[in-house]
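Entry 12.
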Amino acid sequence: MESLIPTFGGLIWTIAAFIIALSVIVAIHEYGHYIVGKWSGIKAEVFSIGFGPVLASRIGKDGTKWQIAALPFGGYVKFLGDTSAASDKPDQEVLDEMSAEERRRTMHGAPLWARAATVVAGPLFNFILSFILFCGLVMYRGVMADPLTVEELRTLPNVVQELQEGDVILEIDGRSVPMPDQFADFTDQLEPAPTLEYRIERDGQEMTVTGPWLYPPLVSGTTPNSAAADADLQEGDVVLSANGTSIFDFDQLRDIVGDSEGNDIVLEVWREGEETLTKTLSPTRRDLPLADGGFETRWLIGMNGGLLFQPASQPPTFVETISYGANQIVFIIKSSLSGLYHMVAGKISTCNLSGPIGIAETSGQAASQGAVSFIWFIALLSTAVGMLNLFPIPVLDGGHLVFHAYEWATGRPPSDRALKIMMATGLSLMLMLMVFAVATDLVCP
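Predicted 3D structure (tokens):
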């Protein structure tokens, strides 16, 4: 899919993409608080996207003031009877003048279950947004059809290519092609070679033809905020050589980059309709999560590969759709928590942490790659925001849930003095984390 805006790499468009992504995520998060609070009998006085001076507002049928404010880096819901949007302190003078029925409509006068449900709804709606977006993406893209069928051939330079669009591939290198869910393991068993024999069915006839290696050094996409994106590698580009070594297999390029120790990689790149291009890329060290919960340190340029052809797809089943959506969320949460633990323990670099600058740059590059990439980024960031808000830190939703758990266990809420101390501590921790994240963005490559 084409870029949303051709010049999205510029500073203005990067900021715009970040604001759009953040506004969508914040709006869904705060709507979770608002709607579950409403269902629980708690009245919201203000629903705001952004902070500061109000740019536009209207009063809803339920009396809630819906507004857009000048600083679009967050949002809040202020409930009846609160002194602030944090719901950390009641407006006692207002509460004292209320009847019992009116106090029930405030956050501080509602039953414990209603308050807890309203608090947890924000992160929960972030996860729901991510789930819906991930499910929508897999439904849009589809899954590999069975049997494996060539839908669209990639253009490759200087290769023997006898495959045609519409061919059904029965065997590769004398091995029967398995079901789609076993295809990755199947390709791992193939011996890389510049050309392979493909047993195919074409127009009802079986025949054997010659074609290139399954995974050429072909650019199917680039990772936002990476060396490949910065070098303007484009979908459809083919890497002919790396550091003077001719390559035919994507894994050859991966090995050369992995052995670079961060030194520049010079690529000779073929681009259709243009002369061969020379690109110099600086690999970045990254710590990648492993299935066992550990991390593997590798040097990366952020170039994504793919098959030498676009396989035909089919709509995913209902189970495949919901499994994909749920598995994406679980993977993001597990890898994020594992990454934080390993950074705190000093086992991986703190450069794996992205602050607001890095997130903004990534949002701009994701948008420049098209709507699908940008939607995937919003889904990922929404999961991260939902997870972060569940951390048991005062000022975050997770901190409020801890207060509610304390009240449930003891029969009384924490004292005002304890709340003030904990809220101040939580705010200090969040500010320190923000400063650290910004410093990481500025220092790390």
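Annotation: The first strand starts at residue 44 and ends at 59. Residues 1-9 have pLDDT under 50 and may be disordered.
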